[in-house]
Amino acid sequence: MERMERKPKLHQHQHSEITNDAGLPLDLIIDILSRLPAKFICQFRCVSKLWRAILSPPDPVLQNLHRNRSNSTPLLLFFYNSYHYIFFSSLDTQGQLQNWFTKQIGSPVQSRRFCQGLMCLLCSEHVYVCNPSTQELLQVPYSSKLCDIYDFALGFLPSTNEYKIAHWFLERDRNLDMVMVCQLFTIKGGPNSHGTWRVVGNSPHFLSVRRHPICVNGSFYWLVNGLRNSGNSMKILAFDLATEEYETVLCPKTYSGRYDDTDQLLSIEGSLCLVYGKQGEPHIDIWMMKDRKNQIWTKEYSFDIFATNRPLWILQYIPSGDGRDEEMLIWSQKGCLLFYNIKTRCIRNMGNLINKNIGIDFDMGVHLWPHLYFDSLYSLGAR
Question: Which parts of the sequence belong to the F-box domain (predicted)?
């Protein structure tokens, strides 16, 4: 009797050697699928056993191709919460509705964070992570420390393809001094997304609840008050998700912002940027960190934005592509959502289109602040 050899998993095969029943190479199937929205790709798991093997969880080659193609077609993701229900709507940059869905959750959402296609929702009794593209909702194990939460964030570590939820809380050390402690939860993706919370150390600065961290290239960044007699009144605190260590980053030498100004941190094309604009004035300066190791900044943008309602906050940077110029997504003084074309210096108002396509009043304010969103196949191993 001949010995039967166990076939390796599909992902271990050379893609060019695998064909389906119709004789199509797997490479071609993956190339076709990578051009489709994630919600359709998820539905194709029922087509055949081969496609289910490719899509549950998504093949790594498919994920990479899909991610690269999605990066050229940014979407705007709107989230709103009503009692025990959450609602997601995504629109393209012309205001056309692309996708929407709703989910029931255990308790109302108190706060949320967004990073690289996923959203983390903090509720009074639960913590969830959601992929709006695949409509997966993962309930994260609750930690008693979340009752004392000071701030929290969702980050992505590209080197391991993992997402990490971080939250900071205050407690007293052995000397009875108040310290800020960080706790992390890692999401690995796929059926083994579940993990545990663990404490990783204390922050050297007290963070400001007014300035939430952003994640750029696997590190969290905050604007914090500078130390006395240190020159600039503002500093940037960094937390590396790979090494789990803190570092203080100096602001650009030509930056003169104060804590009460409308300055903020932004991610532009994968680089950390510092945005500075004085309250009530239309002028905006944006510095980009060109060399993270040596902390070298360059002033990348400097422009004036004149509009009926002067802008207060730059929400997102929208890259150029598909005949589209680079734009800044801006939240203006009276709730208007504006697109500022950096090349032509023209402004277009998205508010009316959003009201029409989402079906609710955009003047609800910060609860509808959009996130720049790229369609994602990242699997949470949950439905």
Answer: 24-64
Q: Tell me the CATH architecture of domain 71-373.
A: 6 Propeller (2.120)
Confirm if 134 and 143 have CB atoms less than 8 A apart. no
The whole-angstrom separation of Cα 186 and Cα 299 is 35
Q: Which residues contact 261 (CB under 8 A, 6 or more apart)?
A: 276, 277, 278, 279
Residues forming a β-bridge with 111 = 122
Domain boundaries, the chain: 11-68, 71-373
Q: Give, for all 383 residues of the chain, the pLDDT tens digit.
A: 444 433 334 444 444 444 555 567 888 888 999 999 998 888 888 888 877 888 888 888 888 899 888 888 888 888 888 778 888 888 888 878 888 888 888 788 888 899 988 999 888 778 899 999 988 999 888 777 766 667 789 999 999 989 999 988 888 777 777 788 888 999 988 766 667 888 888 887 776 655 678 999 999 998 877 544 444 467 888 999 999 999 988 888 888 766 555 688 999 988 999 988 776 677 888 999 999 888 899 999 988 877 655 556 788 888 887 778 888 888 776 667 788 888 888 888 876 556 666 655 544 444 566 788 889 999 887 65
Q: Three-class SS of residue 116?
A: coil
Tokens of 161: 């393809």
Query: For the stretch 371-383, what's the b/e string if a residue is b when 16 or more beta carbons lie within 10 angstroms of its beta carbon?
Result: bbbbbbbbbbbbe
pTM higher than 0.85: no
DSSP 364: G
Euclidean distance between CA atoms 383 and 378, whole angstroms: 13
For residue 122, the tally of other CB atoms under 10 A from its CB is: 18
Structure tokens at 174: 């052995």
How far out from the chain centre does Cα 358 lie? 21
Task: Judge contact between 377 and 38, C-beta under 8 A.
Answer: yes
- Distance of alpha carbon 263 from alpha carbon 314, whole angstroms: 10
| Tokens 């289910």 sit on residue | 52
